[in-house]
Each structure stands twice: as structure tokens, then as C-alpha cells.
Amino acid sequence: MSQQTRKKKWQDILQLLKKALRHLFLHNGWVKLLALVISILLWAGLISQDPNVTRNKVFQNVNIAIQNSDSDRLYTNRGKIVTSDLDELLKNVTVTASVPQLQYENADASAYNLRIDLNELRSNGDSVQELRIQYDDDATYGDVINISPSSIRVNVEELFTYQKVPITVRTEGETPEGWYMEKPTPAPTTVSVSGPISIVKEVSRGITTLDLGTLEWEEDTIRAIGEIKLINRRGDEIKNSLLVISSEGNKNDTVLIEASIMPTREYKLKDLIQIKGEPAEGYRLTEEPVFSPESITIAASEETLERLDEMTPESRADALLDARTFDITDMTETGVFNVTVKKLSLDNVSVTKPEAGKTVSVTVSIQATREYSLRNMVDFSGELAQGYMIVDEPVYTPENMLVAGNEEILKALDEMPADERADMLLESRMLDLTGLSHSTVFTVNARELTMENDRLVVLKPDDDQAIQVSVEIAPIDPGEAEDYTVTEETEP
Q1: Does the predicted TM-score (pTM) go above 0.70?
Q2: What pLDDT score does 481 carry?
Q3: Predicted local confidence at residue 155, as pLDDT
Q4: Which residue, 245, 263, 281, sits at the end of a domain?
Q5: What pLDDT, on a 0 to 100 scale, did the predictor assign at position 284?
Q6: Which CATH number do you get for residue 98?
Q7: Do residues 178 and 107 share a domain?
Q8: Is position 154 within any domain?
Q9: Number of domains present in the structure of the chain
């Protein structure tokens, strides 16, 4: 067939179609077209009502329920606990269902009761088990034809409960001066901890923290809520969402903290205890008595503290201590006196520090002494200026040097030759008079003494006082010399 013949044939066909359409519209054509449309709609409606006509619908990120868990916070069943993160394992589940055409738009994944049943956990000790994602077909919304993934593999452990985990309260911050807080107590004092056996066995105790900086410091009983933190034997916090804290069957990870706050008073022991008498001859106190501790602190109601303040020092000492006076008469060695703190008979006394029944000590340091005349220790050398002389005996201030130490050292010092002892005790014992023509005051310093690893204490002169030696010099013939009353200080 030639190209021209085919073209003519198509033209004939188009011409016939044109005539047919013209005939249709000229002879009840709109009625016929309407009937055709209605027929099509009726056919579509009948088809949509047929339950055998279905379409596949895909549901993404479907929510999977967990059934038959013995706990509302842990995934447990018959003594087993799932330690895997089920939310992570089930977050990307995809479900495909064959949905009747009529319900396609209304269909939802919840209609198929998608679930994990923890009754499938086996008690054979396997640490890894497989759980199927189960579902129910629905008469209205059709059947599930595919689930991806269809199952998950989970880690499983034995469920264990530690019945009596002790709770302690830890404080942060400092107690303001003038206040005392009793040791805070938690309520309850113990809790139960449940979870995987490998983690629960690590739990040693629970702690809760009370921040002292947040408290109102006034005479009262404070109450605060503290969060419980679980601690292992190394002192590290155990953070694990699989652990559940409970008390008396109620899940609760907080405790009530209670403590009483009271004002305080501090009384110095040196104001309460008296030392009377003097050591034996040749002995003396080498320093002020040492009190340990230095004071007693009383925590009580303000009313009670005011009553203590109003007492005389003697009455206050009698109320606080079982003794307040100690006699050191004729003592020859250092003594330590112990005093017991009494339980106050006053009302509303919370605590004493040290506590009632404890002891405080008073140390009285007594050492043997020796007194050496400086007149026998200091010597002079050199000649005065021509025509001058020493008018009177030199004047020593102080006249004697007082040294304290243990008896053995002092005996050794006694046995030394006088000049050797003077060299040990004085920085310089020889005073040079060469060429002097005026009255002069010499200054001599005592040494810081050490002998065989024991210190000799120079009691006189003390640290702030030097030894002074005054030498009065005058001309042999006063009429021929210059004024000789001028006094000057000269280092030897």
C-alpha cells in the first residue's frame, strides 16, 4: 500500500467519526452521554463495595506495643528482664497490609494490634533471645502481608532486687558561723533497687545531697526533698535507666531529709579553767597552758544559751566541766590534766562539742631552770684612754641570765667551765674597752641555744630584751679632761 493510499484511509476514518459524533448530538446525544457517565460511576461504586477488591498500604515507623510486662517501668516477665533498648530496636518497623478499597483512606496501623509479647521470653538461661512482632488481621481493614523486621533479638538477664540499700545524706557548703545543724536523716533510711542482676550487684549504697547554701538559717527543723543517687563500692555513681528504686512497694527515687538547726555559743577553756600554785623551786612554767581543744561549743535553743550567758564564769565552768581548778604546786615536770565535759542539765540542749562524756586536756609545760650571774660571765679587755679609769663596778641589766631545759642538759651546763658556758650562752662575752674615754653601755645578745638536739630556752632576758652592761668611765684628774658624762651604746 502506497503512502498516498494510507493517508486517504485515515482521512476517511476521521470523516466517519465526525459524522457519528454529529449524529449523536443531533439525535438525543446529551442523554446518551449522561447515561454513559452514570454507568461508569455506578460501576466504580459497585467495585469499591466489593471486599475482594484490595490495595496494598504501607505504614512507616509503626508503634509496637509491649505486652505482659510485670513492671510498668521495666520490661520484665517471670523473673527475666530485657536489657536491650526496645525503643531503639522497634523505631523503624514497616508494615504492609492488604486493605479493602473502601477502607483504604481510613486504615491505620493500630487496627492490627502490633505487639511484642514478653511471655515468649524463655527461662532456659539464654542471654540473647528472639521475640516476634505479632499482629491481628482485621475484618474491616484487611490483612497484614508483611512486617519488616518481623522479629527482634534482645539481651535478657535475671531480674534481681536488693531489698535494703542504705541511704546516707551528704552535705555541700559550709555551716554559717554561730549555727549548728544536727546530722541530717533521710526518710526512708533504706530503699529497694530492682534491675538486671549484673548491675544491681554493683550497688553499695544510695546517697542524697543537702545544699547548705539553700537553707534558711534560723532555729527550726528543716525539711527538704533529695534525689537518690546509687553508688558502687568504688564510690562512683551508677547511672542506668534499667534500675528502679522503690520503698514499701512504691517507686520513688527521692527521700525526705530532716535536720534541726540551732544557734551556738563558744566558751574558751582558758576562761573556764584556772591554774593555781607555783612549780617547785628551780622550776617554772615555760609557756602559757595549752588547751585542747581551745573551746567548748554549745548548740541549744536561744533561750537556753541566754541562760548560760547570764551565769558567772565559775558557775558556767561548773555546769560544763567536772573540774575547773588545777594545782601545780611543787610540780617538777610538764603535766597534762584531763577534764570531762558534763551533760548540761538545762533544757533544749542539742549538743556540745566535744560531746558530753568526752575529755578536754590542759597541758602545763614545766622545766628545770638555772640562773647564772652575768657578772661572772662577761669579761673586759683592752686599756682605757690615757688618764681615764672605771669609776665603779659595771651594772648588768638584767643581773642574771635565766635558762630552762631538761635536767640532764642543765647538769651538763653546770659542769662546764665558766668561760665555756658563757661562750655557749652569749654571742660575745668579751667587751673591748680600748681607748674609751666616756661612760658606755654595751649590748650583749643571748644565743638561740641547742644542745644535743634539745633546745635550751632563755627565759631572761626574753626575746624583746637584750643584755646591757653599763660601764662608768671618768678621768683620773677631772680638771684636765673633757666632759666625761656622755654615754654611748657600743656593740662589743
Answers
A1: no
A2: 45
A3: 92
A4: 263
A5: 85
A6: 2.170.120
A7: no
A8: no
A9: 5
Q: Among 87, 114, 149, give the residue marking a domain's end.
A: 149
CATH number, position 205: 2.170.120.40
User: 143 lies in which domain range?
Assistant: 55-149
379 lies in the same domain as 486: yes
Residues 420 and 399 grouped into a single domain: yes
Per-residue pLDDT of 21-49, as tens digits, reads 666 666 665 666 666 666 666 555 555 55
- 185 within a domain of the structure (yes/no): yes
**Tell me, what's the pLDDT at 21?**
62
pLDDT < 70 stretches in the chain: 1-10, 12-14, 17, 19-52, 125-126, 346-351, 449-456, 463-464, 478-492
Q: What is the structure's pLDDT at 486?
A: 38
Are 463 and 354 contained in the same domain?
no
Any domain includes 74: yes
My answer on whether 299 and 227 are in the same domain is: no
Q: HEC states along the chain?
A: CCHHHHHHHHHHHHHHHHHHHHHHHHCCHHHHHHHHHHHHHHHHHHHHCCCCCEEEEEECCCCCEEECCCCCCCCEECCEEECCCHHHHCCCCEEEEEEEHHHCCCCCHHHHCCEEEHHHCCCCCCCEEEEEEECCCECCCEEEEEEECCEEEEEEEEEEEEEEEEEEEEEECCCCCCEEECCCEEECCEEEEEEEHHHHCCEEEEEEEEEHHHCCCCCEEEEEEEECEEEECCCCECCCCCCEEEECCEECCEEEEEEEEEEEEEEEHHHHCEEECCCCCCEEECCCCEEECCEEEEEECHHHHHHHHHCCHHHHHHHHECCCEEECCCCCCCEEEEEEECCCCCCCEEEEECCCCCEEEEEECEEEEEEEEHHHCCEEECCCCCCEEECCCCEEECCEEEEEECHHHHHHHHHCCHHHHHHHHECCCEEECCCCCCEEEEEECECCEEECCEEEEEEECCCCCCEEEEECEEECCHHHCCCCCCEEEECC
